[in-house]
Amino acid sequence: DGFAASLCGLSQTLTDSLSAMKLKAHELRTKNKSELLKQLEELKNELAQLRVAKVTGGAASKLAKIGVVRKSIARVLTVYNQTQKSKLREVYAGKKHLPKDLRPKKTRALRRALTKEELGKMTVKELKKKQNFPPRKYAVMA
């Protein structure tokens, strides 16, 4: 019985250490949406358990793991949001209007500035003036 209990405890610590391993963003990018959401749910459950352990006076290793789990949750959310945004960009590619969060941020002044085409346009009066009175050419003595 004692051997089985110690073996069970060992397996528990092994699973704890595996789940607390730092998630790599490039590994998360290979997963699909449902896998990411499942991973997120598992991490949130683990964080809840760790917080309970913190209140009840758990081991120091569990308290240290809270930070790792929180960072892992942040990584999963970041990858999830980035993939969502990139898929949205693909959907709206080539369309006339983009949602505001997909438009380039720049600054307010730059967003309102005239485009290259608008800058190049001339009024009818300007065009006539330019055609009828071309700039004078001077021969400069060397």
Describe the structure.
The chain is mainly alpha-helical. It is 68% helix and 0% strand. It contains seven helices and no strands. Helix 3 packs antiparallel against helix 4. The longest helix is centred in the middle third of the chain and has 33 residues. The chain starts with a helix and ends in a 10-residue tail after the last helix.
Order of helices and strands: HHHHHHH
What does the radius of gyration come to? 31 Å
Shape: elongated
Mean pLDDT: 87
Number of strands: 0
Structural class: mainly alpha
List the uncertain runs: 4-8
Tell me the fraction of residues in β-strands, as a range. Answer: under 5%
Tally of DSSP helical segments:
7
Span of the ends, CA to CA? 108 Å
What multimeric state do the chains show?
single chain
